[in-house]
Task: inverse folding
């Protein structure tokens, strides 16, 4: 067998049986191997940002890495923005990038570029296979890296001759000896802090803590001790909805975050980062915690936060009896005009049991959390890297990972345009994704940021760089162009109806919410 | 004035008065400065690949750099593929990328990444401004780098606080002392080669040689000496059409290139590269020249090839009288079915005087050169870097540079989907671009490459990675979604009619050629 076949067989044997791809010439032997090796599902994207974002969404829902297949340096470059988001979410991806044949690189043909240099900023593991007999072992090492604790973006660069030359066969993925765990000492310290001054202690959680069970443990700890539990501003995935512990998040806006955080003398980090502003602004702090506030890390990314929370609850004798009953929240379908409140209410009512919510709603969605806390149980996925064009690919990959669950992708009109090609892959694969585009015809977040950075009142020419209303984007036409049925809504009643139908029907749908 | 204003004023004073942009928070002060500084035209793109490709197209037509404005590492990453193409075409671009405030970078906020690391592979000049008082001088240095010989991608990274802090004012662009010239010795050597064995000598031309006058000089030299003049496979810009010297290009397909090149004992390079295969293939050579063929470089990128050709023509006593009369070629509008031949013929008939042809026609367009040699005089722009998603942004930038000329963008359906967002910018700016999409519903080039690399006959699953027919892309709907009128054609007559109307009307149009 050749190198490409040895790699595909190694991937499948190693449990990496989905490949999101946009291949080119240098990857044709890999494509050919698909017909020889059973068990690899290949999903084509028309743009590489779709491919890498889908691999991110797949990992978040499945917990194991998918592979990608990208064409040389520029193909990788097109996928980097969503690799950035995936890296910040600690998603594992076996990111395979074709390269010229080893002996061809020196000739500086048109597509030649420094692929390793491009890969490094958004990868934690980078390797170029030197020859066909190394490809399987390198692939196995990439799988191990992608699956490590914390998971990583592992970029494997594959010169074309390593794909077509003779190889030896499958390589086994090295057994991961480093099992996710936690530090009992760190849990002891957290317990002491909570014993001492729970009223001024924030348990700041994210990552693997945000399962239904992890949240329930945090809820018991809060009930027992009186500490506050909050989430970061953004999370890779969070269990939410009826019956689950609903935590507030640190607000994005500095002026809202500071008064909340100033109450805490201690912050216990559960995978979370020190609370830091998303951007810097003139005369505003970057670090959001109060002066003198002591930060203690209980778990880091890659550690077992649920086990650590179990231990912490045990040390504090916190049990299910300590949980304060949550207020019952009634869900009523909204009527009348569409605004941020009625949109949030309509979505909360429409969320089906076990839905996957992919959130790139930006300014429209800043109030989505409170009403949806009462919705049917669901998972909520957010952008950890801040690079827009995140949601439609992540929704695509989540739907591939979970064909029996409904994916609802919430996206601003500006954000939707970066990787709109996702819709085609959703149509091609018949994926159960409802894309809701919030069409306010402006990069509304930038209008806010313009104020935030103290740039004054935007004049006509500055406004031209923020507004995207000339011409108006017609998302229903764009969806039709890629084979996805869509409709536009202008009232809450229309939105309720469109959502109910889209959720009920199989396959992808798009709703343009005209605000 | 603050740093952002000092930069915008420096750009305008330095002749860089167009900015293609997709800004974010860290660039808001630059956007605010647009209202304070007259003379900067800002053109918004909905995706960064549109922005960088437009800057490439602008440079190719205008000969002076435009600027870009991109948002942090991921915004730059999204623009890298077309920066790659621009770099390979030796286009000059002042590529401005926002960064977190200097003091904020260390906090590792979500959008933090290694921007310099991302920039280096596709830039020849990279600098991060350290403070507001340095921004103007750094901007001036970036302009000088972008304008140098050969021109460069100059990436200037602008931490947010360097934009909002107080600065000193405008900086002057350093005078370029290194004027483009050529080596008289290299011309002497070329003259000697042509004196000695012109019948076995190939004058291989590209770059600045491909003006109407440069080509006329090459034609005289060929007429006088009997040498062969050919172009590379791809060129940044080539003067073509009726009355201009039409040169053949080295074929992309190795089996076609080898028999042509085996006749030559000498190759004189005029900015061209050694003839190298685009990709490597098993058991085929990378280097296409005959064994023992001697290669002599007469001019390099950045040198004055027209002056060198003048000198060479002078040394050889080649004059206009030496030119062999070209065969008259009749242009007849095609009828009947659409195929590669009738499509080429229809386009040749429709090209208006002084049109700008942007060519990403891939397999459909491999035969476009012969018939269009008889078309009205035009410029022909090609992809030098091989990264698809090139043409619609380049057409956009070319139209901004030359509002009085008609731009015709020829693009395969697969390629069109990478940067389809260009259409919106064309509609917004009312640009005179006719986009012709060749909808064969397959990455046809990959079907050929699959054979080329010896991967056998593609099975069903491999074919799935090459064909894009499920679902069918509706480019008329996509164009409508972005405010561009479009129509689909299925016969040569319909295509003739659609082309004639699209060329006659102002503003952007799209024609989907269903093959």
Result:
């Amino acid at each position: 067998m050749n190198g490409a076949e040895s790699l595909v067989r190694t991937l499948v044997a190693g449990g990496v049986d989905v490949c999101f791809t946009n291949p080119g010439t240098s990857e044709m032997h890999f494509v050919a191997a698909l017909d020889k090796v059973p068990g690899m599902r290949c999903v084509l994207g028309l743009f590489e940002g779709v491919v890498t974002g889908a691999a991110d969404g797949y990992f978040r829902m499945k917990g194991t890495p998918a592979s990608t297949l990208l064409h040389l340096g520029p193909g990788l470059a097109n996928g980097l923005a969503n690799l950035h988001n995936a890296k910040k979410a600690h998603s594992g991806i076996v990111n395979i990038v074709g390269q010229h044949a080893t002996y061809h690189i020196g000739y500086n043909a048109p597509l030649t570029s420094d692929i390793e240099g491009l890969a490094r900023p958004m990868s934690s593991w980078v390797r170029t296979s030197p020859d066909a007999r190394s490809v399987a072992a390198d692939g196995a090492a990439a799988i191990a890296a992608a699956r490590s604790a914390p998971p990583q973006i592992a970029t494997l660069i594959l010169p074309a001759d390593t794909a077509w030359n003779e190889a030896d066969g499958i390589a086994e993925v090295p057994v991961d000896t480093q099992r996710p765990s936690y530090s009992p000492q760190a849990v002891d310290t957290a317990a002491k802090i909570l014993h001492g001054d729970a009223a001024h202690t924030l348990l700041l959680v994210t990552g693997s803590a945000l399962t239904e069970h992890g949240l329930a443990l945090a809820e018991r700890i809060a009930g027992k001790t009186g500490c506050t539990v909050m989430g970061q501003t953004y999370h890779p995935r969070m269990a939410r909805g009826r019956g689950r512990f609903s935590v507030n998040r640190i607000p994005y806006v500095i002026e809202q975050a500071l008064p909340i955080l100033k109450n805490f003398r201690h912050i216990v980090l559960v995978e979370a980062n020190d609370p830091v502003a998303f951007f810097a602004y003139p005369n505003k702090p970057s670090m959001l915690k109060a002066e003198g506030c002591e930060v203690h890390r209980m778990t880091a990314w890659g550690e077992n936060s649920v086990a650590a929370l179990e231990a912490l609850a045990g040390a504090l004798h916190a049990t299910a009896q300590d949980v304060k009953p949550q207020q019952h929240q009634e869900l009523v379908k909204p009527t009348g005009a569409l605004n941020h409140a009625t949109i949030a209410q309509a979505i909360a009512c429409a969320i089906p049991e076990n839905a996957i919510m992919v959130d790139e709603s930006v300014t429209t969605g800043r109030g989505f959390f409170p009403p949806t806390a009462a919705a049917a149980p669901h998972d909520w996925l957010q952008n950890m890297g801040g690079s827009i064009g995140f949601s439609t690919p992540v929704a695509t990959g989540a739907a591939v990972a979970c064909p029996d669950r409904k994916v609802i992708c919430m996206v601003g009109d500006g954000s939707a345009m970066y990787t709109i090609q996702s819709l085609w892959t959703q149509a091609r694969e018949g994926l159960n994704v409802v894309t809701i585009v919030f069409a306010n015809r402006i990069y509304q977040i930038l209008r806010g940021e313009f104020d935030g950075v103290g740039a004054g009142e935007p004049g006509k020419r500055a406004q031209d760089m923020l507004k995207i209303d000339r011409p108006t984007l017609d998302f229903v036409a764009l969806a039709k162009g890629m084979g996805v049925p869509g409709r536009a809504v202008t009232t809450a009643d229309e939105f309720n109806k469109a959502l109910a139908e889209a959720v009920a029907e199989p396959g992808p749908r798009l709703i343009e919410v005209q605000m």
About this structure: Chain A has three domains: 3-164, 184-322, 340-514. Chain A touches chain B through 101 residues (CB under 8 Å). Chain A has a mean pLDDT of 96. Residues 184-322 of chain A form a domain with the Rossmann fold fold (CATH 3.40.50.1220).
